[in-house]
Amino acid sequence: MQTIDTLINARWVIPVEPDGLTLNHHSIAVHGGKIVEVLPTNDAAKKYHATETVDLKTHAVIPGLVNAHTHAAMSLFRGLADDLPLMDWLNNHIWPAEAKWVSPDFVRDGTELAIAEMLKSGTTCFSDMYFFPDVTARVCHDAGMRACIGLIMIDFPSAWAQNADEYLHKGLKLHDELRNSELISTAFAPHAPYTVSDAPFEKIRMYADELDIPIHMHVHETAQEVEASVKQHGMRPLARLAKLGLLGPRLIAVHMTQLLPEEIKLLAQDNVSVVHCPESNLKLASGFCPVHALTKAGVNVALGTDGAASNNNLDMLEEIRIAALLAKGASGDATAVPAHTALRMATLNGAKALGIEARTGSLTAGKAADITAIDLSAISSQPVYDPVSQIVYTATRDQVSDVWVNGKHLLAKHQLTGMDEAALREKAIEWHGKIKAS
Ligand SMILES: CSC[C@H]1O[C@@H](n2cnc3c(O)ncnc32)[C@H](O)[C@@H]1O
Ligand SMILES: [Zn+2]
User: Fold this and answer.
1) Is the CB of 129 inside a 6 Å radius of any atom of ligand 1?
2) How far, in Å, CA of 69 to CA of 148, rounded?
3) Which of 171, 243, 250, 268 is the most exposed place for a label (fewest CB within 10 A)?
């Protein structure tokens, strides 16, 4: 008998890699934060002696969900400004509120609230873009959450940095401090082509090559963004990014609702990853990302929630379902984004976009034990012909029972093991009191 930390016995194991595989009555052996083996439960009982055994008799176990684009601390602005288009929302509501309220304490409390919500809905890793990324990284480390922290750049001063040089300098310092972390990786995060000028983009390209990290950016979010770029630069944002040498496998282009057929070809040729945020795009009426055409062209498409101020939740199960439905509606093709593809977008494709697919994104021996269990015994998920179909089209976040990140059991039987929900609620109420009074 081999001694291990944890043995998870599940009714179904869906490893995501290989694609389309569903394993019945299988177990996951976990030791030292890593997946040691995925094997039939009968064999696991003979081979492994585990310190902790978790029986999930009615559950499907999947790789932890990867939220490939969010602004975690914006959870404290949830519901602050609804039912508006992007630029009105940003210029007249969100940016003024951020100028007034964003501080290290705001980012700490907002990120903790967001992590609690993400863990409770099955997310084990998120890619963030927000002020005080040093605070976000510390909160993730303390909570045991995996994250890709955005080293932000924007052409206006904020409480985090005054100018491009300071944004870059602070970002590089943070990257250096985090370079040996098992849980936290970094990416450059220039906000968008319309808020970052050529000179900082050129520096980011150079440092991203040198440090071998991704570049995470909002791109082609709305038709107005594209029109404004044509007026100001004489070209579409993507063409400008291409001219600046930014198109390539490092680029994580978020939103992409405005794409010409030749741009889709270019994204595929250059191995750019796209992050689709369907709920944010719907709520801000930004447009529709042509996910079916992108996947057919071979582009890696991942999923993100965007921030809780434009969604208004951080629920990746909901995002998966909307992505699968919207792809069919928008393309007029019911075969677009089938359930297995949608689940892959929310797991392995996200990890690939963030450059961490060797660490996470599938239930594969040697990868980190980032695992989510979904209870399919709910009436609304009966009967189960295909557990992947039930996860994508019927499951809601209250069916997420257990979550492990790097082998740590952070959600056990629906309860957060390392976070105090009542205290998080109190802090959110306190912030609401201050913000609404202003
Ligand atoms: C420089 S920190 C990130 C910055 O992005 C803002 N933001 C949040 N959601 C969106 C979105 O959908 N499009 C563009 N910008 C967005 C956030 O409020 C921060 O200011
Ligand atoms: Zn965003």
Assistant:
1) yes
2) 10
3) 243
Q: Nearest ligand to the C-alpha of residue 253?
A: 2
Instruction: Count other Cβ atoms within 10 Å, centred on residue 172.
Output: 17
Classify residue 92 by its DSSP letter. Answer: I
Give me the pLDDT at residue 186, please: 98
What does the buried/exposed string (b/e) look like for 141-158 if buried means 16 or more CB atoms within 10 Å of the residue's CB? eebbbbbbbbbbbbeeeb
Dihedral sign (CA 155, 284, 395, 38): negative
Instruction: Determine whether the annotation assigns residue 69 to a binding site.
Output: yes
Average pLDDT, integer, range 406-429: 98
| 242: amino acid identity, one letter | A
Atom of ligand 1 nearest to the CA of 71: 8
d(CA 377, CA 58): 6
CA 17 to chain centre: 19
The reported pLDDT for the residue numbered 159 is 98
Residue with CA at minimum distance from ligand 1 atom 12: 306
Domains within the chain, CATH numbers bracketed: 2-63+366-416 (2.30.40.10), 65-353 (3.20.20.140)
Confidence of residue 438 (pLDDT cuts 50, 70, 90): confident
pLDDT tens for each residue of 84-131: 999 999 999 999 999 999 999 999 999 999 999 999 999 999 999 999
Radius of gyration of the chain (CA): 21
Query: Which pLDDT band holds residue 437 (cuts at 50, 70, 90)?
Result: confident
CA of 358 to the centre of ligand 2 (A): 25
18 by Cβ neighbours in 10 Å (0-12 / 13-18 / 19+) ranks as exposed
Q: What is the mean pLDDT of residues 21-40?
A: 98
